[in-house]
Structures are given as structure tokens and as C-alpha cells.
Amino acid sequence: MSVTAAAKSPMMQLRRAPAIVLTVSLLAVATGFGCRSFGRPPAALLHALGAQTQPTASGRAQARVTLRSPQVSGEFHGLLVATRTPTTKVRMLLLPDLGSRILDVIATQDRLWGTLPGGQQRLDVVRGRAAPRRFLTFAGLTLLEAHIPVDESRITGARATAAGWQVHLTATFPRLRVLADIDTDGQVIARHYRYRGVSWSEYVSSDSRTIEGSDFEMTIDQIVWEDDPELPEALFLHGSS
Predict the structure, then answer these.
(1) E strands, 132-227, where?
(2) Would 192 disulfide with which of 31, 81, 98, 229, CB 3.0-4.6 Å?
(3) Cβ neighbours for 45, distance < 8 A, ≥ 6 positions apart
């Protein structure tokens, strides 16, 4: 297994773009939801996507995570495991220098689960049920989508932009809507989400990621990714260590 400073996971892969900001708003943002200007994906877009190197199927990442929220704030050690075989599963934990985990989120295509310290927030929603409009839900949905590549099979419409294209995607979780901004090289440079009336956007950085909402901010940097084709299935069971 090789360890590199350049991330191979889609969520951890670094781009030449402004820092990722995940902005949550109870009002729809100007990302094009509801617009009817999407058409068939052009050949140039499909060619650019096809030229992209596919991410590794399974692996682990470590990172520095700085979190600011009403529930907990500080700098933590972040651990992430992800697999795309046979279906996509992602788990992220935040650990302090001493003590138990601060945050634990597991996102699969069938379930969202998560917890913040002391039971201040808990999440456990199976596919088909409405998830609450809270940080754990937005974080889980973003983790899940970021680990599923954008390809022709997921695109239901496309339109040209100054940077390349914006595409409407088939989302992986019911009631979630996703738009992706793709540059002319075929790299995803942003995603725009809407779930149960809440809209937020995700942008990729050259060296960090930030998730930002109305009352929280999470910055992820110093990312190191390690391929691991034999991740135990137990890692993705809620409540496991």
C-alpha cells in the first residue's frame, strides 16, 4: 500500500480552485435548481470526463480538521475510510489529542448515521425516510456524493458555463438534488446540493477543504491518503470503532 500527500479519494482529491466551502442556507441559492436550460451532455464534456483517472476503490485518509460550532470547537485529528465496492460507503471520525471521538459520521447509499459528543446531535436515517435538516445530515450527504464519480450514467442534463459545464446529476439519496460544475479538463470543481428545502454548495481547494454553514465551519487540510483494498466491512457499522 502506498501513502502519498496527494489524495486519491474523490473526497480528498485536491483541485486547483478556491477552497471548498459548503454553505448552507434555508433559501435556494443561485445555482440553477428549477431552471429548464439543461440539454443533452455534449461530446466534449463526455470526452473530458472519460479522460479522468478513476479514484481508487478503497482506502484511508488522515487529516487535520479545525471545527467551529455551537456544540464543539477546536483542532482535531481526522480519520476517513471509504470504499466503492460493492457500493459506496464513507466514514469520518474526529479525535482530540486525548479522549474519545468528537464526531462520527457514516454515509452509505442505504443509511445515514452520525453523532456529536454527549448526544447533542444524533442521526440514524434509512433510505426512503426524511433526514433532519442539521449539520450531520449535510455532512453525510456531502461525503457520500463526493465519493461517487461523475460519469455519463449519472448526468440527466448539461449546460455550458464560463469554466466548462454544469450538469444535473442523479443523486444517490432520495430527495437530494445535485448539480456539479465541471471544468474543461473534466474535473469537478463544485457541487451544489438541495435537500428538503435546504441548499448548500461545495467547492474544492488546492490544499484544503472547508465545510461552512450558518453556525459552523470545518476546515480539512494536511491530507494523506493510503490505498487499502481490504477495508473490513465492520468499519462501516454504526457504533463500531
Answers:
(1) 155-160, 164-169, 176-183, 188-195, 198-203, 208-212, 217-227
(2) 31
(3) 158, 164, 165, 167, 182, 186
